[in-house]
Amino acid sequence: MGNVTSCCESCFSGRRSQSYEPLLLENEREAVAELLQYLENRTTTNFFTGDPLSALTTLSFSDNVDLQRSAALAFAEITEKEVRPVGRDTLDPILFLLSSHDTEVQRAASAALGNLAVNTDNKLLIVKLGGLEPLIRQMISPNVEVQCNAVGCVTNLATHDDNKTRIAKSGALVPLTRLARSKDMRVQRNATGALLNMTHSDENRQQLVSAGAIPVLVTLLNSPDTDVQYYCTTALSNIAVDGANRKKLAQSEPKLVTSLVNLMDSPSLKVQCQAALALRNLASDEKYQLEIVKADGLQSLLRLLQSTYLPLILSSAACVRNVSIHPQNESPIIESGFLQPLINLLSFKDNEEVQCHAISTLRNLAASSEKNKKAIVKAGAVQSIKELVLEVPLNVQSEMTACVAVLALSDELKGQLLEMGICEVLIPLTDSPSSEVQGNSAAALGNLSSKDGRAPTDDYSAFNDVWDKPDGGMHKYLYRFLTSPDATFQHIAVWTIVQLLESGDPQLISNIRSSTLLLPNIRTLAASRTPSASSIGTPRSHHSQHSYQDTEGNEGQGEIQLLSRRIIEIVEIEADGLVSSSIPGSQHMQPGSSVSSSRDHEELRRSVREAFAPGSHR
Questions:
Q1: What does pTM read for this prediction?
Q2: What pLDDT digit, counting tens, does each position of 292-341 carry?
Q3: Segments in 295-390 forming alpha helices (H)
Q4: Which of 52, 76, 225, 375 has its CA 20 to 30 A from that of 540?
Q5: Among candidate residues 287, 283, 327, the one with its CA nearest the CA of residue 301
Q6: Domain range enclosing 40
């Protein structure tokens, strides 16, 4: 703190020959003599208690400004070498010196206080004893050294959460913001550090914005000083957490994204990392998702994504995930070469968050385009998922199964996914401890079983291969979902059974018709209203826009009943030997009505199929 370079011993001894010495009070002369002895043995002296502290206190409260200077310099030098928790008896003389009108006393006293403010207990006590008011006065001092030490002390005090609100309400933010523009790099560095420390709560962020901090922080992104860049980038990243602040940034700072993109190429790893995190927070909004791509941010993000430094990988993966939310960004991201690095990160077992960001990005990239779905499968994403999904943490499983559910929406890819044996890992996951993993896995199986415009050549043998295995196979999974208290799971089960029956595959139809587990429960659902969905939650990934929530109402319960009746209808028709293939246009019973039309049936199928699509951007 503060570049205090004085030597206290020479300071005191030099004054023995000065003319003011006879004017000293007796206790002051004794204090000077005692302190000189203590300084000669400073390595073994505790200056924070007893006679050494008493001598310093006497000099601090003296009316003689030279003695005050000596005391302040002694405190600064002592605390530079040793910091420990202190009491009021130590802080009171320093706070008294802080209020001096002498610039040299102010400079040394604020340096000493800043040194002590490194200690957690001291941070709280300094504020409690009223240290903020004199520090704020010193921040507006015309002396740069005083400014630097005062701001540095406030920076240290602001690292304690209990102090942040008091600092924000003390009137310190306006002078801090002004000093962030200082021509002195030390003052600028301390001021931006203090502003950063004040961005960790919503209330303080709003007060910072009101104090005019945003344009200052954005301007200083172009500072030549790495520390200032880091402090400003991190502060803006924190400010951008709030939607209202992102809106203000979008309205007032048109160069922000370009500056942050440039900082991703900084020589400093910590600046690169924070720039990517700031862009990630900004990319919570659609405008910024597009602007990052427009500002050529993808190439820098791709470079960071392929780094060997975990913070860079994590920050860039999180940013790309948010950027990929916008449908217009899907193809640019794929064309920029992200697919293989993202797939490689699926096996990044050192960090679950990296895996989640990577798989969620792949899912987003697959959401809107058949071409992109094919590119993702061709790049090996599904094979990696199959190899990893049973071993990864639950959060990653949820994202992986949701991704497969999106890919399985492609009619052109269903056969390929089935041939890859994806059902072998999806079925065990329908019995996961996580309801999200269960639901996403079941949705993927349901999407694989459904195909618009089926052809006689469609091969459903893959479902026969997994009818009883692994872990009880499709048969046991469908039974669990049919008997679940969650209407959402019941809905998935009856929809999937309808698709399997309408495939026209004789073996599948026989498996369902002969099941003593499935048909009795289907008849129960067909005969009575489905109970409300339980509080298990939607089985869709929490990053989806679509969910099965519509099955919780009467309309959803009615759909379950209709689908159950459709199953019974097909099974009974097959039993009578009337048909042996898909009959999507056949009539079926609606609850409390006569025979419905084929158009009603198609609307029902479309409604449930849309509910099955986890292909959201999030």
A1: 0.82
A2: 999 999 999 999 999 999 999 999 999 999 999 999 999 999 999 999 99
A3: 297-305, 310-323, 330-335, 339-345, 352-366, 370-378, 381-388
A4: 375
A5: 283
A6: 25-170
